[in-house]
Amino acid sequence: MPAQRDGLTLRQQQRLTLTPEMRTTLSVLRMSGTALQEHLEAQAAENPILTLRRPRSEASGVAPSGPSAYDLALDTTGAERSLGERLRAQLSLMALEPQVQDIAFVLTWSLSDTGYLDIDLADLAQEVQLPADRIETALAALQACEPAGVGARSLAECLSLQLIELGFEADLAQAATRVLDRLAAGEIAKAARATGLDAAALAEIAEALPKLTPYPGQAALPAPRVSLPDVELRFPDGASPEITVLRGNARTLELDEELLSVARLESDTALASYGTEAEALRRALSYRTTTLTRIVAFLGDYQIGFFREGGAAMKPLTRTQLAQELKLHPTTVGRAVADKTLAHPGGVVPLSAFFSATLGADSQDAVSAYGAQARIAALVAGETEDAILTDTEIAHKLKNEGVDIARRTVAKYRGCLNIPSSYDRKRLRAAARMRGRV
After folding, report:
1. Residue 179 burial by Cβ neighbours in a 10 Å radius (0-12, 13-18, 19+)
2. Mind listing the pLDDT tens digit for each residue in 112-171?
3. 142 — phi, psi (to 5°)?
4. Which of 82, 118, 213, 356 could bridge to 368 as Cys pair (CB 3.0-4.6 Å)?
5. What is the pTM of this model?
């Protein structure tokens, strides 16, 4: 056998990484209007080339004569940090390689409100052209943050992470999540036989289950805060729809062009660095404005039924479908719509509400989950005291209307709408009737 010899080998390899400008673009696109305003104020305070201009009234096109009650509320309401901001603060304190930290930050921008990771890691690897092991390392860092369970890609992984946080071994926690139904039912012996695990250990996990939450992000959500909508969509009579990005648009920031020209001529100086950052921020704002405008323009056309008739007319739509129509990456769409709201003549609605699952196999009769919720709310609103609908009856009525929906899905949507059960609705109506007689 030939002897092995140590040696040094030089190898050239091309690889794309998250450049500072790419990080800025991704971050700005993901931020809500409120978060972005705070970020711009911080940047303008530090960078002498930047000036943050208070926008004129977008509705009228003229400067307001004085602060409105809404402006005063904005100025006096304490801003709570979002889940993503809290996670990024924790990640900043970890001893992570710069590239891993960058990826972990990207992952925080792709979390749902409930704390689950709303992105496919393979898609992310393709987008940023980085090895899968780097992304897995970043995911592990994210999942090490509080609240426990955040960054999970499934309910089983979410509960497993929380069990590990409580002190259970990782292999035991992961195996236990495969027999959750038996553990929840108290069938410890059956769970032990199915997994080959110690019954005493599984009994401890069963005892810990009530302490877990399927939605770790909700516990970390900040209290509601006053915030302007991010985008406005109007339908003038006889004119094309008008779209206005209300906050964080490209007109919000002004650059000192004379100072910027000097910065471009210099190198390896603080001023040159400020100039690079200022131009990157301006381009990021422009990209954010353009992307939001394109998305809202598509929604204004595709969801015209919703804007004219209300929630029941919401059509099914996925982020992937919209991305294909606009020739964007699905993760770009996800970042663009996250934590942002749209003002329209009927009110204010989260942009994420326009993306919901399809209920019904026939594409022509398909109904969105949002539309089904609106129909459930309408059915409950039309109830009489003597005809309170159960979840089964609501599901039956919707099926007669062509909506393929199960009773448990009705119960889930009813919970999302904060509508009590049929039993509680009967009790509340009876109590109201008795109060009326007193």
Report:
1. buried
2. 777 888 777 887 777 767 788 888 888 888 888 888 888 888 888 888 888 888 777 888
3. -65, -45
4. 356
5. 0.53
